[in-house]
Amino acid sequence: MGRKLSEPTPAELDTVEINRLLATDPASAARLLEAAARRDRADAQAWLGQMYLDGQGLQKDAQEAVYWFQRAAHADVPMAMNMLGRCYENGWGTTQDFALALVWYRRAAAQDLDWAIYNLAQMHANGRAVDKDRAEAFRLFTQAASMGHARAKHFLGQFYEHGWEVDADPEHAFRLYRESAEGGDYRGMCSWASVLAGAGRVEDAADLIRRAVPLAPTHYLAPLAAQLDQAASAPLRDTARWVREVLAQR
């Protein structure tokens, strides 16, 4: 008989197999990761924390997610540090604490994790645990964007479009929106759709918005629909109605 998936040793964790199972049998992937996590495999701990946070392959449990993120973060796994910061920032499975979120984002950013640099930029942009500092946010969004971070490119595009902390450069802004959209970020997709609509490519814009909506969180959809209601073209107003239908089904 072959080795049971539930009984790996730390050295036997097979990330290729885990990714396959995540697509075909998430519950087995969760069992495999939990067994490795309990044997102090830090990468498995980070992965397991994300699965508990998302409710993938096991019952959603934000407190359990925090527990595993903490263990992996203290073992210097950058993504676990970032996700622990996210939990503190949003109050997922723990008390909301912007100061602790900032600590963990900074630790992960120091290891050049693009998501942590992006999240740190948002902390400065929104004044969470620090004074609002748009110049520092611009610097950090630029750093994350240079690493290929799709969502950072969208926000950096806004700086160039509106001339925040830099001379306005709509052409560069639109290029960043396009790159963000190509990277699969829903905000970038909607911003690039706006550029396409302005250029008369209304059908392309509507199609792109429809591809962005499944990727977007629920709180983003009502404002998006309200914005589309104001569009001059019928295809975009029709898309607003479709967005509300999607929202009603969530």
Provide structural commentary.
- With 250 residues, the chain is mostly helical.
- It contains 14 helices and no strands.
- It has helices at residues 15-24, 26-37, 42-54, 62-74, 78-90, 98-109, 114-126, 134-146, 150-162, 170-182, 186-198, 202-212, 218-229, 234-249.
- The longest helix has 16 residues, at 234-249.
- The chain is globular.
- Residues 1-11 have low confidence and may be disordered.
Low-confidence stretches: 1-11
The overall average pLDDT, rounded, is 94
Level of helix content?
A: over 70%
CATH evolutionary superfamily of the domain at 148-250: Tetratricopeptide repeat domain
Radius of gyration: 20 Å
Can you tell me the overall shape?
globular
Order of helices and strands: HHHHHHHHHHHHHH
Number of beta strands: 0
Name of the CATH first level of the domain at 148-250: Mainly Alpha
Structural class: mainly alpha
Strand percentage lies at under 5%
Protein name: Sel1 repeat family protein
Pfam family, one: Sel1
Q: Short summary of the structure?
A:
With 250 residues, this protein is mostly helical.
Output the keywords.
250 residues, Sel1 repeat family protein, Serine Threonine Protein Phosphatase 5, Tetratricopeptide repeat, Mitotic_Regulator, 14 helices, disordered N terminus, TPR-like_helical_dom_sf, mainly alpha, globular, Sel1-like
